[in-house]
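Backbone geometry:

***
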Amino acid sequence: MKKLATLLLTLMPLYAAAQDLAVTLPIPSGTNKGILSVAADGAKGKPTLLQPIFFLKTLIDSSAVSSIDRNWIEQPKQQLAIEARTTFNQSRLKMETTWEEDNFTMVSKSNNGFSTSAGLWLGYRGYGLGFSKELGNTTGSTFSFGAMGGRFGLNLRISSYKSDMPDIYFNGEQVSGRNISDDRLDDPINVRNFFLDGYYMLNGKHFSYSAAYDNSLIQRRSAGSVVIGGMYFHSRVDYSADSNWLLTALMKDVGMVKFTQGSIGMGYAYNWVPARGLLVNAMAMPMFTFYNRTTKYLYDFAMIDPNGKIIDEEYLAGLDEGEYYDILFDPKTKISAVNEREEKTGNKPKFNFDMRLCVTYNWDRWYVRAYGHFNLFRYGSDLVSGRMTDWTAYAALGFRFW
């Protein structure tokens, strides 16, 4: 984030200079020129150092309005926007394993609690960066990037959280967790998620995705569109710390799981404009997960004495009974996960879905937006299977300027 901030601070003076020198390029309706040609025209005659900025600026401006009908979609005069966001999120991870020989099933459910975070988002014509930090008792952070044009939307989200009190079930009966004890893991379960999705609107002339989700355009009349979308999701769940050796052993020696999914789908989105400035958007998209692979990391366990030596049969043979019990009950003696092994599953296609809902209201420069998004991801192998559910809702107050 420091590098991104430095880059933005470096570019802002150049952008200000570009604004002072700029000659506004109209994008006439029905022009025969391609967007890249229009962007190239926007850079002609400008100082060499500023030409890439003018090219990128004109390209973004052109892509946002090149195919829209101005009777249905309006572009605000202000180009930049800043948002203050309050986000509510809950990610739930369920891991399950079955010991068939003992007729025994263990389920671990972990989550980030009901987390609340606060952050900022800064964008230009639908292209922006955001960062939020969780507040209160939960720990985690989220970095986001969005890019939205006249017919497309692209979103990237990287989040992480730690869960130090998973709910543990043996054969359906809860034996540990927030509801029945206050036992916490010395080394929390560490969950990191990478989420990327993109959409293409077939009716980009009358329907605006960015009008709902970043307010860089304004929907004036109700319209809908068939949507084609793709999604990539990667998650890493790590509980392989030495202090979690019992949890790892109960999960059939699996101490870390990585799963990756790629999905495509087609759905429908609708922008309802019941009154001027007010917009309600809903989108639903069934998806086919054509790529679904899980990587498991398995471990052996070794007892380590206070001096860092592995206690094996040869080691034990040199101890008398008193020395054995002294080492066994020494608080510095520990059990450690060793000999990490990686196992990958074959591809297991599945069906998934993507849903989101948004309500927004625009004034001249100010706007407010409430947004909700839900995803479900399933993974599995012969040792460990499970699912991750993730829902996010946020409220944003935005201001357009420049």
The two ends are 24 Å apart (CA to CA). The chain has seven helices and 18 strands. Residues 156 and 245 are 34 Å apart (CA to CA).
